[in-house]
C-alpha cells in the first residue's frame, strides 16, 4: 500500500512557529515514514533564492520539493500561495493511481473540498494539523486529525 504525504510548507512552518516551537523537518520526515509508512512526501514551498541551503537540507531529509514562484506585496512581504498547486497534484495523483492513501499536512480550510473528495473515494488516511486552530471546514469532515503540537517532544528542533 503506497502512502503519500502532501505538505503545505508555509502552513507547516507558520503553524509550528505559532505554537512557539520550531519543527525538526528531518525528524518529521522519519516520523511520517515510521508512523504512516509514507513513501513519498511532497513539500510545497515558495522559491526564494536565499533559502537554497534550506531546500538542500529538506531534500537531504527525504522531501520532494515542489516550488511555487513567489511574488512580493507592496511592503516587500513574500506571497507564495501553493494551495492550487497542491490540490492539482493530489487530484492528478489520485486519477493516475499514484497512491493508495493520502495524508495532508495543513490546517487550511481551503483544502476541505479536496479532503472530502479523497475521503469519499476511500483514499484519505489522516490530516496532520500544524496548528491547534485547525479550520472548522476540515474538522467538520469527521476525518482522523493529528495535531502536531501533541508530537512536540519528539519533533521539535533542538
Write the layout of secondary structure elements.
Elements: E1 3-8, H1 9-18, H2 25-36, E2 38-47, H3 52-60, E3 64-69, E4 71-72, E5 78-79, H4 83-95, E6 101-105, H5 112-120, E7 124-129, H6 136-139, E8 145-147, H7 152-155
Parallel strand pairs: 1-2, 1-6, 2-3, 6-7, 7-8
Antiparallel strand pairs: 4-5
Summarize the structure.
The protein has 158 residues and is an alpha/beta fold. The protein has 7 helices and 8 strands; from the N terminus they run E-H-H-E-H-E-E-E-H-E-H-E-H-E-H.
Q: In percent terms, what proportion of residues is strand? A: 25-35%
Order of helices and strands: EHHEHEEEHEHEHEH
State the helicity in percent bands: 25-40%
Oligomer: single chain
Overall structural domain count: 1
Q: What's the total count of β strands? A: 8
Mean pLDDT: 94
Helix and strand composition category:
alpha/beta
Question: Mind explaining what this structure looks like?
Answer:
This protein has 158 residues and is an alpha/beta fold. It has one domain (7-77, 88-104, 118-130, 143-155). The chain has 7 helices and 8 strands; from the N terminus they run βααβαβββαβαβαβα. It has helices at 9-18, 25-36, 52-60, 83-95, 112-120, 136-139, 152-155; strands at 3-8, 38-47, 64-69, 71-72, 78-79, 101-105, 124-129, 145-147. Strands 3-2-1-6-7-8 form a 6-stranded parallel β-sheet, with helices on both faces. A two-stranded antiparallel sheet has the order 4-5.
Amino acid at each position: 500500500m503506497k502512502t503519500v504525504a502532501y505538505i503545505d510548507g508555509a502552513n507547516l512552518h507558520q503553524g509550528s512557529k505559532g505554537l512557539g516551537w520550531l519543527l525538526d523537518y528531518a525528524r518529521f520526515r522519519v516520523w511520517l515514514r515510521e508512523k504512516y509508512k509514507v513513501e513519498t512526501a511532497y513539500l510545497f514551498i515558495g522559491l526564494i533564492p536565499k533559502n537554497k541551503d534550506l531546500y538542500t537540507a529538506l531534500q537531504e531529509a527525504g522531501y520532494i520539493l515542489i516550488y511555487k514562484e513567489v511574488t512580493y506585496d507592496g511592503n516587500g512581504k513574500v506571497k507564495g500561495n501553493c494551495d492550487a498547486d497542491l490540490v492539482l497534484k493530489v487530484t492528478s495523483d489520485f486519477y493516475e493511481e499514484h497512491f493508495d492513501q493520502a495524508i495532508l499536512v495543513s490546517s487550511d480550510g481551503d483544502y476541505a473540498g479536496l479532503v472530502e473528495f479523497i475521503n469519499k473515494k476511500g483514499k484519505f488516511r489522516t490530516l496532520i494539523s500544524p496548528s491547534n486552530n485547525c479550520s472548522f471546514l476540515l474538522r467538520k469532515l469527521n476525518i482522523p486529525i493529528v495535531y502536531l503540537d501533541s508530537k512536540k517532544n519528539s519533533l521539535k528542533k533542538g
